[in-house]
Amino acid sequence: MGIKDIQERLLTLLADTGNKGLSYNEIVRQLDLVRKEKSLLSEALQDFIECGKMEKRNRKYRLIDTNLKDKPKNSATSKPGLIEGLFDATPLSRNQSFAFVRTEQGDFFIGAEDTLNAYHDDLVSVEPHYRNGKANYAHVRRIIKRANETLAGDIRIANDKAYFLCTNPKIHNWFEVSDLNSATDSNKVVLQVTNWGTPLYGKMPVGKVIEVLGLSGDPQVELMGVIRQYKLPLEFPDSVLSETESFSDQISAEELSSRKDFRNLFTFTIDPISAKDFDDAISLEKLNNGWRLYVHIADVAHYVKMSGSVFAEAVKRGNSFYFPKKVIPMLPERLSNKICSLRPQEDKLTLTVITDFNTGGKITKQQLVESVICSDQRLGYEKVDAFFEGNDNDLSEQLQQSLNNARELSALLTDIRLRNGYIFFDLPELEYEYDNEGFIKRLTLADETESHKIIENFMLVANEYIAKKLTELSPTTLYRIHEDPDPAKLQWVVELLSHYGVSFYQRDSLNASIQYLLYSMPDPDYHKVFDRIILRSLKKAKYSTEHIRHFGLGMEYYTHFTSPIRRLCDLVIHHLCKIHILRSSKEKISPTQLKRFASIATEQELQADQAERDIERIYSLAYMKGHIGESFSGMVISAKSAGLIIRLNEIPVNTILKTEQFTGRGWKYLEKEMRFVNTYNKDYYQLLDKVLINIIDVSDDIYVELQDTNVAHIHSFQNPPYDSTGLPEAASHLKKGKNKRIAVDDKRARIKIGQAKHKQRGKR
Fold first, then answer.
1. What is the pLDDT of residue 193?
2. Is the Cβ–Cβ distance between 173 and 12 less than 8 Å?
3. CA 214 → CA 182, 187, 207, 384, distances in Å?
4. Distance (Å, whole) CA 484 – CA 492
């Protein structure tokens, strides 16, 4: 009996029983299946569940619709109450498989037994369950569309069998390899999935190797694995390169005649020292009654027309991808690094936002013009900061004066932004140092410095103005928005902070409340732990044609205009500026097109962020493999049911102390407090604890154990007193009177935190 025969008999059987449902063993008995046919039955059941014909509930299989017997396999389910969403697996789900499904109705928890056969980013149909009218948990009933048919990862050979483990930790299952295609143990490969398996019946997914990338651990091989995992394009199509070659690198007299000539202004750029795509430059004049700021942005739209192949390719890519020692650009290098890049001592076409400020930093006048500039000098952030610190005076007198003026104006703008509700998170970023062979020799943290803040403030001025002007003149535009937070998540943060002695007070606005919260942290350790927790409780910024106030920046209108070389949104905004503000273009952009661009730009930004996080994780793991057996000090920055997340002091990486490594038994996890307590001896592990650890394993993560010493664990924050149950009481530090507890369910309150591109800090 083949699988088709079993499928037909199975559908008939369930329909004939009145669809009351049958268990697996009941089906086996009634179909009178022999041992070899049981595996075919398991496969048939799995297929029917995935395509929406069947469901499993209370260990019994039922047809979702008895009329589905004669419908094609891929027909959509008609069961009421099912909703669609994206399957989001947890990074710690390896061996502890659980996930969330993100839907328009909210996020639903998916337990290990209810994932069906879904993998990260799959589009699924779930049966939702609510609690008090809010999303609670769900069961995956159907896999609508697989996110990946190919995966990048590592080959492992054991007992003469080949296995594959994906680079992405959210793809947590091992795969059986049917065809190695000359790959060997510890090779990084690309796997094509041929069968997704049947986990409920112990059947592993299967795939075949279609590309061997090289030896795992090599930085370039690991980087290529991430590139393949996210299917990032390394080459531009011939049509795009051909069109790019047609662009002249010379500016004609006709092009100059219609533009403001700012080549006489002293102009400079400030960028990372490794950057080649300079899309912004500044000029600044100190006036008797204030300042005049010129923000010059590369006029990419002059070359990249919306009807051309280059623009079409930019839409596909969405943005540039920045990796250690490698950039995958949105535009061909001839454009991004040469023709459009504002390189020193070269005439360049630009769009310039001119802003006049009074002596108090208040804007008095603004305008946008098409222009031409010639940058006088290219500066790196480090050099500017060295000058401000008095360690580098090897600059011209004119440049020194310009930088001091910029510093003065920026300080005023920062004060104004804070008064308007700007919310600042000081989150240092990971940076790498390499040896001559390209391997990492050191990991460090880089703080946002004064030079970054200057560029950020000046770019914010330009972005806000363009958003206001396009709102006024264009029927539809693209905004950079950040939606309201989930009240339940915000409430959870408030309660969590209360357990660690930090109160959330009601100030004049929600912005001010969050500012005060961050300001009131007792010491830097609190910032290291809670700044990220607060930020992660908020929704992510995105692009939209819908106007929503940018709360985090304290701005009513905001967009991205200042990076057209590396971001699709900025390039589209430039075209809108030429159409509606400058009236120098007759191109047309429909609202439907803008919505599509917003969706692509948001999706690709998320992908870029995830890809960059993946390579950061891989490089950190590779570096830490050389430190197995070594001892470090660290601090607990997070706690999950699986264990503690410990940030090392000597090396800026996160490690895991699993619960099985805890001393003794009787440990209970308190989710609301992010704390483990021992019901026998009243011991506890919690956030902010200082620990001494040993690195015991580096594989899919960095695993540690506590050192065998009396001082291996120190409580930085004293636990609240225990109640009669032996568990800590929730501390209440909320004050009455003027400072009332914030109403997290206030619908007027909005939190929308902006995100700076981490490879070019300061350029929001």
1. 95
2. no
3. 11, 6, 18, 41
4. 15
Q: Which of 553, 591, 579 is nearest to 470 (CA)?
A: 579
Residue type for position 401: Q
Measured between alpha carbons, how far is 442 from 433 in angstroms, rounded to an integer?
Answer: 5
Question: For residue 83, what is the DSSP state?
Answer: E
The predicted pLDDT at position 50 comes to 66
Distance separating alpha carbons of residues 514 and 533, to the nearest angstrom:
13
User: pLDDT tens digits for 627-639?
Assistant: 999 999 999 999 9
The residue type at 52: G
Q: What is the pLDDT of residue 133?
A: 76
Residues of the chain with CATH 2.40.50.700: 150-216
Range(s) within the chain of domains with CATH label 1.10.10.10: 1-72
Contact 43, 30 (CB under 8 A): no
Task: Quickly count: other Cβ atoms within 10 Å of residue 93's Cβ.
Answer: 19
CATH architecture of the domain formed by 150-216: Beta Barrel (2.40)
Would you state the pLDDT for residue 96? 53
Q: Which residues contact 247 (CB under 8 A, 6 or more apart)?
A: 303, 334, 335, 339
Q: How far apart are CA 199 and CA 180, in angstroms?
A: 23
Residue ranges of the chain whose pLDDT lies below 70: 1, 18-19, 50-52, 65-80, 91-97, 199-201, 717-764
Contact (CB, 8 A) for 336 and 277: yes
Q: Is 58 left (phi over 0), alpha (psi -120 to 50) or beta?
A: left
Q: What SS3 class is residue 609?
A: helix
Task: Identify the pLDDT of residue 94.
Answer: 44
* Neighbour-count burial for 506-520, b at 16+ CB within 10 Å, e otherwise: bbebbbbbbbbbbee
**Strand pairing category for 702-706 and 684-686:** unpaired
The Cα–Cα gap between 730 and 30 comes to: 56
Q: Given CATH 3.40.50.880, say whether it is the number of domain 1-72.
A: no
Of the candidates 49, 69, 59, the one whose C-alpha atom is nearest the C-alpha of residue 116 is 49
Q: Which two tokens stand for residue 705?
A: 């154990």
Q: What angle do CA 266, 269, 274 make, to 5 degrees?
A: 150
Q: What is the pLDDT of residue 235?
A: 95
C-beta separation of 751 from 552 below 8 A:
yes
Neighbours of 542 (CB within 10 A): 20
Please state, in angstroms and rounded to a whole number, the distance separating the CA atoms of residues 292 and 3. Answer: 76
Asked if 607 and 156 touch (Cβ cutoff 8 Å), the reply is no
Residue position matching structure tokens 């929600």: 510
- Distance separating alpha carbons of residues 686 and 159, to the nearest angstrom: 42
Q: Looking at residue 97, what is its pLDDT? A: 58
Angle between helices 238-245 and 309-317 in degrees, nearest 10: 130
Cα 623 to Cα 619: distance, rounded to the nearest angstrom: 6
Contacts for 370 with CB less than 8 Å, ≥ 6 apart? 258, 259, 260, 299, 349, 350, 351, 352, 582, 584
The DSSP annotation for 88-129 comes to EE-TT-TTS--EEEEETTEEEEE-GGG-TT--TT-EEEEEEE
